[in-house]
Design brief:
Blueprint (H helix, E strand, L loop, with lengths): L3 H24 L4 H21 L18 H25 L6 H27 L4 H18 L1 H16 L7 E4 L4 E7 L3 E5 L5 E5 H4 L4 E3 L7 E10 L4 H13 L11 E7 L3 E10 L5 H18 L8 H16 L6
Antiparallel strand pairs: 1-2, 1-5, 2-3, 3-4, 6-8, 7-8
Helix pairs in contact: 1-2, 1-3, 2-3, 3-4, 8-9
């Protein structure tokens, strides 16, 4: 049987444990510092009372020992371990913060919190209830292997999500483009999948395991401006320099494209029929590509018409007629 001092100590510890839980809930989530202080105060008080009574929460006691198998002793030690876990978690939530990287900080916090809960659970099972930890861990490992094989795809998405979060190839709000042509703005990302809003206003759900294996282009970095290239063929009736000056003048009047850096006109080649030029200009955002391209085509067409420049057909359109005409001259007609 316990002496009066031990019974009183266990009663005080149980009372402090329950009171600490109540006060912790009354603090609310918006006061993390106050919550941590409350947890530390109650945990220290419970530790002092237990130690002064000769009860060590991290030791295994028999059924007849002080703080052993009785309900007050078991509940007191369980509450002590619970308050230790909550105090540790409060410290992790408050002080493990990565500047300007809240998503990574949250991930690291979740991993540490999971480890704390696992460690405290095993400690309660081993030290309070006296269960063999080695056997329990071995059995848990076997169960984990079976569950891992059954949830292989889900776990693959989970660990890929962790890798994507730590690597940060994109964040919420970025405009991305995948190797298969899928593109859009990232609107949500979690441990299993990433949600992308496409220009067609559809949500594409991409599993993290598949997303980690494909080529990904982040069109938002280093900034959201996006380069467009528009090829044109102008009739070879004027000098290439004049053609380039006319088109550059037209591009400078477009309001839907970025003027700094200035748009460029590159002369790519020339033949007897036309001059191949390439218009290079930026748009403020990938979503502005279609209206900006339409404006550029309209303004360039108007400017070329005003300066007497005509568009030339592509090489494929006149290659075969020339071949036919040449063969017609070489091979006599059957009527002859």
């Amino acid at each position: 049987m316990f002496d009066d001092h031990t019974v009183l100590a266990l009663a005080i510890v149980n009372l402090l444990g329950v009171l600490g839980i109540v006060v912790w809930h009354l603090q609310g989530r918006d006061r993390p510092t106050a919550r941590l202080i409350v947890q530390i105060v109650f945990f220290v008080a419970m530790t002092v009372v237990l130690m002064s009574s000769g009860i060590m929460p991290y030791r295994v006691y028999g059924a007849g020992a002080a703080g052993g198998g009785s309900f007050p002793g078991t509940s007191a030690r369980v509450l002590w371990w619970v308050h230790l876990a909550w105090a540790s978690i409060g410290f992790v939530r408050l002080y493990i913060v990565l500047d300007r990287r809240p998503q990574e900080a949250r991930l690291i916090q979740d991993l540490i919190v999971a480890a704390v809960y696992l460690g405290v659970t095993l400690s309660i099972v081993g030290f309070v209830f006296g269960a063999p930890i080695g056997t329990l861990v071995a059995t848990s490992g076997l169960v984990a292997i079976i569950v891992g094989l059954a949830l292989q795809n889900t776990l693959g998405d989970l660990f890929s999500g962790v890798a994507l979060t730590l690597g940060r190839p994109f964040t919420i709000g970025d405009w991305i483009q995948l190797g298969d042509g899928t593109e859009g703005r990232v609107v949500e990302t979690n441990w299993r999948s990433t949600h992308v809003l496409t220009p067609a206003h559809n949500i594409v759900v991409l599993p993290n395991s598949a997303l980690a294996k494909v080529t990904l282009i982040n069109l938002t970095r280093p900034d959201e401006s996006h380069l467009l290239v528009l090829p044109l063929r102008i009739a070879a009736t004027h000098r290439p320099s004049l053609v380039a000056d006319v088109i550059v003048t037209a591009l400078k009047t477009c309001k839907g494209i970025v003027q700094d850096p200035q748009p460029l006109v590159a002369v790519k080649g020339m033949d007897a029929i036309g001059i191949e030029v390439e218009l290079q200009f930026r748009v403020p955002h990938p979503a502005d590509r279609v209206p900006a391209r339409n404006e550029v085509i309209d303004v360039v067409c108007e400017q070329c018409a005003a300066n007497g420049l005509e568009f030339a057909p592509p090489p494929q359109s006149y290659l075969y007629p020339w071949v036919g005409m040449a063969l017609g001259r070489i091979m006599p007609s059957p009527e002859r």
